[in-house]
């Protein structure tokens, strides 16, 4: 069935979700509904994923917020006027500030806010509130890669090259990135490359890979060090590049020398031969790229881990070479622009530092205040949430474009902190779990109802355009900030509410900064110019900078920096009480906390509830069954969901998606230990146990309850009759493995081998202490790095040695012939549900955790705009 002809006029804009920012064409009105088509835009080339196709449904969500709500003395949220709502907020902020000082009011922003909103939010916090307490949910996504990128290259732009450059890649290493589910149209650019995927799960992306390295969660840095080690020992370095374009190689390499392949294998579980194969693929002539994602970044050592992969890319001479590079796959819709313009705790617009006197003077000048009027840096996101309602913490919080009750780590604790506030104000367009806890809820516009700009993962500034007016009383966030600022005594002209005016001011504030937007205008963007920052305002129109680092890196001497990093384990190790690694992530059908996508009927039908993905053997040992309810418990709390068996999972690991609320919140078990430099929590690895739950037991019910037990929510009546959240698109059922399948270890447990896969300490794992394991003193191993001839270990083939050490016949674990454990894990059988679905919408059958990317992409209809 083909779509009817797309009528004109069409509005050219971009998908509201992820940082790929696929180009779209919108048509329609509020009465007949908005329809979307993919545009022939360079990143998506006429394709959209399931979320993009169904994005208009959020515009008409049944519980769309259409008027301000205020919590009354009876504890219920009920409708009120804008004046009453804003007067109430301003009055309570004034009273709290008078009693406790300006830092008693905090602000929490979002990586989905437009550049204009992010900019004005930072200005509002620092001038109208005078608070240092502002941060945003991008701290949970991008901060470690950003910190590592700034330190290595002198600037942080997710991809310092256009996405389309990937089409010329011969090899792409995806470290902790599952693009087949998070941004499927990107796969078009990877179809000529051989993929190396690093992921503890055999994801849809890993299924496409030439090589899947499946490390123990939390050991990615050891693997990165091992890959650098191999590049050194095997003579694969680009010595000329290292000498001309970098500093710090010697110390970085010296640390990597302690991570020879067999040691890396013992820590990560990745076979030494696969490590060697990965480096050989990357070091081949022609283009190679190293790309990191949240899987390796969301750790308490995430900055060092990202730096470890940057070291590898630098050692191979890739960044800025014009024949490959390093990049970070930014996640949120405006994850790039949102981290550049001042909503971060330590930052001013233009990616300037709040502690730099020159930066403070420049921005204060643009804002018409004295530099000393600007507060200093505040707490990072989790630290801020953790301090809410505490003795010296904020007593009021204003939330824009975020849902921390679901998305923050240690979610039960964060929910308690939110509940302890004297004032919680949430600006959103749907009643998210955080909005349901608020004292005042402010209904704001969303993507197709507003103008603005966003900056994609490749640093390209894009126009967002309105196609329909907002419903009823919804207002833009810019107007909300202005109206509040004026009530707090600020001059009205300091807070323009027109996005174009705000952007003009942002241009001036960013002028001369790392992220210089001063040469970018709405007029140039509307004329179709492709503008990547930095784009300074020069006499001759600056063309923008699609490719960074071709001549020099952004450090004053033009050279990149290797980082001297070393592996350290996760903040929490497994134990007898918590014997599994719990990890979290996304599925194709949902986005972030799910506040939007859970309101789209087609997406909700595809993945209607949370799940726990485990290996059949792990399930059997834990007493849980396929589709049965189970509880995942860490020292911080428990989540409950149904079990999905997946024989490709590591038996020492379980996975849960983080898009769901209530008892199904994966973040109930995640760890809030922070990376010391980026403030990134260690979302990706927690020590957990798995146990069955009977359907009638506490926590054993579905759907999950809201985390707002102490605050009641009364859904406001629909603003316009006939609005419906549903679509008539293809629905699909959730896929489950039919029955526990015998896994590669089924016949071997329990025993010493089980220790290996359960991630027990090395002694148990191999039955030998580390010294015996490697059998040799450290000297010879380090020979190549210490200027000595290669020692016996590097010179020996890994199979027999490792086999002997493990007391196993050669092969199974470390040997070269694929054995039950060493070879690539078997993929699941072909699934009849995975064929291209009928109908106009590409509707992959479920939130994918098993292979399908090729088919999913093929199912995207081609559209000629
Ligand atoms: S990949 Fe999907 S969610 Fe991301 S921008 Fe494209 S259509 Fe939207």
From TrEMBL:
Alphabetic keyword roster = 4Fe-4S, Iron, Iron-sulfur, Metal-binding
* Region entry Disordered, spans: 691-746, 815-865
Q: Which SMART domains would you find in this protein's record?
A: Molybdop_Fe4S4
Q: What Gene3D superfamilies would the database entry show?
A: 2.40.40.20, 3.40.50.740, ADC-like domains, Dimethylsulfoxide Reductase, domain 2
Q: Where is the composition biased (Polar residues)?
A: 725-734
> Which ranges are annotated Pro residues under compositional bias?
815-845
Source taxon at top rank? Bacteria
Which positions fall inside the 4Fe-4S Mo/W bis-MGD-type domain? 8-63
This protein's name? 4Fe-4S Mo/W bis-MGD-type domain-containing protein
């Amino acid at each position: 069935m083909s779509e009817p002809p797309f009528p004109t006029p069409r509005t050219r804009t971009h998908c509201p979700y992820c940082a790929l920012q696929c180009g779209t064409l919108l048509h329609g009105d509020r009465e007949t509904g908005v329809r979307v088509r993919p545009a022939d835009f360079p990143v998506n080339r006429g394709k959209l994923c399931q979320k993009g196709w169904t994005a208009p449904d959020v515009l008409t969500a049944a519980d769309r917020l259409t008027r301000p709500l205020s919590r009354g003395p009876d504890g219920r949220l009920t409708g009120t006027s804008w004046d009453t709502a804003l007067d109430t907020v301003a009055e309570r902020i004034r009273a709290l500030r008078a009693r406790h000082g300006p830092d008693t009011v905090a602000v929490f922003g979002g990586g989905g806010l437009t550049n204009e909103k992010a900019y004005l939010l930072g200005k509002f916090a620092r001038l109208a509130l005078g608070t240092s307490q502002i941060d945003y949910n991008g701290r949970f996504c991008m901060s470690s890669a950003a910190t590592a990128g700034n330190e290595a290259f002198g600037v942080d732009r997710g991809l310092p090259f256009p996405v389309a450059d990937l089409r010329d890649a011969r090899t792409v290493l995806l470290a902790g990135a599952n693009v087949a589910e998070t941004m499927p149209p990107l796969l078009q650019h990877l179809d000529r490359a051989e993929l190396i995927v690093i992921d503890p799960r055999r994801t849809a992306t890993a299924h496409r890979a030439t090589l899947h390295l499946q490390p123990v969660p939390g050991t990615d840095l050891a693997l990165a060090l091992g890959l650098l080690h191999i590049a050194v020992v095997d003579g694969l370095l680009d010595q000329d590049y290292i000498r001309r374009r970098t500093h710090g190689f010697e110390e970085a390499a010296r640390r990597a020398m302690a991570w020879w392949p067999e040691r890396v294998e013992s820590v990560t579980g990745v076979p030494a031969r696969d490590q060697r194969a990965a480096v050989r693929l990357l070091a081949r002539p022609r283009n190679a790229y190293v790309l990191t994602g949240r899987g390796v970044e969301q750790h308490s050592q995430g900055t060092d881990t990202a730096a470890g992969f940057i070291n590898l890319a630098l050692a191979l001479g890739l960044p800025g070479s014009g024949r490959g590079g390093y990049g970070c796959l930014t996640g949120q819709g405006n994850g790039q622009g949102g981290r550049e313009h001042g909503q971060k705790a330590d930052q001013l617009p233009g990616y300037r530092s709040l502690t730099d006197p020159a930066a403070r003077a420049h921005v204060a000048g643009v804002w018409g205040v004295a530099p000393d009027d600007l507060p200093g840096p505040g707490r990072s996101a989790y630290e801020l949430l953790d301090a809410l309602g505490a003795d010296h913490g904020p007593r009021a919080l204003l939330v824009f474009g975020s849902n921390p009750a679901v998305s923050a780590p240690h979610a039960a604790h964060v929910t308690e902190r939110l509940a302890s506030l004297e004032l919680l104000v949430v600006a959103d367009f749907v009643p998210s779990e955080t909005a349901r806890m608020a004292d005042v809820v402010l209904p704001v516009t969303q993507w197709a109802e507003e103008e603005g700009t966003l900056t994609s993962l490749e640093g390209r500034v894009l126009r967002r355009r309105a196609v329909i007016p907002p419903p009823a009383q919804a207002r833009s966030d810019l107007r909300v900030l202005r109206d509040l600022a004026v009530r707090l005594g600020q001059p009205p002209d300091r807070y323009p509410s027109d996005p174009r005016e705000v952007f003009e001011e942002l241009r001036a504030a960013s002028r001369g900064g790392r992220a210089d937007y001063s040469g970018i205008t709405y007029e140039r963007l509307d004329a179709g110019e492709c503008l990547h920052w930095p784009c300074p305002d020069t006499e001759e129109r600056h063309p923008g900078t699609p490719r960074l680092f071709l001549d020099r890196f952004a450090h004053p001497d033009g050279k990149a920096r290797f980082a001297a990093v070393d592996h350290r384990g996760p903040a929490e190790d497994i134990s007898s009480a918590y014997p599994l690694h719990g990890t979290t992530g996304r599925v194709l059908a949902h986005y972030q906390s799910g506040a939007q996508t859970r309101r789209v009927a087609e997406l909700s039908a595809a993945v209607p509830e949370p799940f726990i993905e485990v290996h059949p053997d792990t399930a059997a040992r834990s007493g849980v069954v396929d589709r049965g309810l189970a509880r995942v418990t860490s020292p911080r709390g428990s989540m409950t969901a149904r079990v999905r068996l997946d024989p490709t999972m590591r038996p020492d690991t379980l996975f849960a998606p983080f898009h769901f609320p209530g008892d199904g919140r994966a973040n109930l078990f995640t760890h809030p230990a922070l990376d010391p430099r980026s403030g990134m929590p260690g979302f990706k690895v927690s020590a957990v146990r798995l146990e069955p739950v009977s359907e009638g037991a506490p926590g054993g019910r579905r759907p999950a309850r809201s985390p707002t037990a102490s605050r009641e929510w009364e859904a406001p009546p629909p603003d316009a009759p006939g609005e419906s959240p549903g679509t008539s698109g293809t629905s699909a059922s959730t896929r489950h493995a039919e029955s526990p399948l015998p896994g590669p270890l089924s016949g071997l447990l329990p025993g010493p081998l089980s220790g290996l896969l359960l991630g027990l300490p090395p002694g148990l794992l191999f039955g030998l202490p580390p010294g015996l394991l490697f059998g040799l003193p450290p000297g010879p191993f380090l020979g190549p790095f210490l200027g000595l001839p290669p020692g016996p270990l590097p010179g020996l083939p890994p199979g027999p040695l490792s086999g002997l050490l493990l007391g196993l016949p050669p092969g199974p674990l470390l040997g070269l012939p694929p054995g039950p454990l060493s070879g690539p894990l078997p993929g699941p059988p072909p699934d009849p549900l995975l064929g291209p679905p009928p109908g106009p919408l590409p509707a992959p059958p479920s939130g994918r955790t098993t292979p399908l990317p090729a088919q999913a992409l093929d199912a995207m209809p081609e559209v000629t705009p």
